[in-house]
């Protein structure tokens, strides 16, 4: 029974408990966890700092001082989410390697799948990073029906509808079943993945992916060649 000053919620938790959970996972707490995670992974913030702005802008990197060589931030390649990283992962690799080699899926599919599933894994080593990312995005794919109706008659309205159809097909025909199988293997049977989970991963990919020149030996570690390649 709830104690004095508490109200019971429909899910059985008290409002005090919910406030405590919110405070425990607030932006400043998430930021501190993320900074600790960066330190553990040998990220160097040389001439910049990461701060929380507000609920609209979220987190950002801010200039703090001049650096002689001009390098403000150093991130190890091990923190790059690449297709090869997904294929080498003990959970993802066995299920994705054949599909990738037979060109049934591409680089983007692998990374979006990884983002979506890792975000839902309770013990993901990437959790401190995911916790500082937006939970929703301000692009038309996230608009409600009422918001989208304001765009009727525009090319953006038609383009948004076509893109949503493509994403629905990709999610329900290829990605949903595979992602749920991966979560079951990871010890979370019955976990249903929604289209919004997929839309979040897709939005993270398109708002943050970059082409980075990497050593050939890093992208393909079994090869001894040293040519440069580009990856997202």
Supply the number of helical segments: 10
Radius of gyration, Cα only, in angstroms?
A: 21 Å
Biggest sheet, open or closed, and with what strands and sense?
Answer: 2 strands, antiparallel
How would you spell out the order of helices and strands? Answer: HHEEEEHHHHHHHEHE
Shape: globular
- The largest beta-sheet arranges its strands as 1-4
Q: Determine the structural class based on helices, strands and strand pairing.
A: mainly alpha
- Roughly how many Å apart are the termini? 52 Å
Topology (elements, then pairings):
Blueprint: H1 15-24, H2 27-40, E1 44-45, E2 48-54, E3 58-63, E4 73-74, H3 83-88, H4 93-101, H5 107-120, H6 127-130, H7 145-149, H8 155-185, H9 195-208, E5 212-215, H10 216-219, E6 228-231
Antiparallel strand pairs: 1-4, 2-3, 5-6
């Amino acid at each position: 029974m709830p104690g004095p000053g508490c109200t019971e919620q429909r899910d059985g938790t008290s409002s005090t408990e919910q406030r405590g959970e919110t405070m425990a996972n607030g932006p400043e707490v998430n930021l501190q966890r993320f900074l600790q995670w960066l330190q553990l992974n040998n990220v160097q913030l040389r001439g910049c700092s990461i701060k929380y702005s507000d609920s609209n802008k979220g987190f950002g990197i801010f200039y703090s001082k001049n650096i002689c060589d001009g390098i403000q931030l150093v991130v190890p390649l091990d923190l790059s989410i690449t297709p090869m990283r997904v294929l080498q992962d003990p959970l993802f690799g066995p299920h994705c390697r054949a599909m990738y080699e037979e060109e049934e899926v591409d680089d983007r599919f692998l990374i979006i799948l990884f983002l979506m599933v890792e975000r839902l894994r309770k013990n993901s080593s990437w959790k401190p990073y995911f916790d500082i990312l937006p939970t929703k995005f301000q692009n038309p794919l996230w608009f409600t029906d009422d918001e989208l109706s304001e765009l009727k008659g525009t090319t953006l309205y038609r383009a948004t509808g076509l893109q949503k159809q493509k994403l629905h097909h990709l999610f329900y025909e290829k990605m949903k079943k595979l992602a749920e199988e991966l979560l079951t293997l990871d010890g979370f049977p019955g976990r249903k993945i929604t289209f919004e989970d997929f839309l979040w991963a897709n939005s993270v990919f398109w708002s943050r992916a970059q082409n980075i020149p990497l050593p050939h030996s890093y992208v393909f570690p079994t090869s001894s060649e040293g040519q440069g390649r580009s990856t997202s």
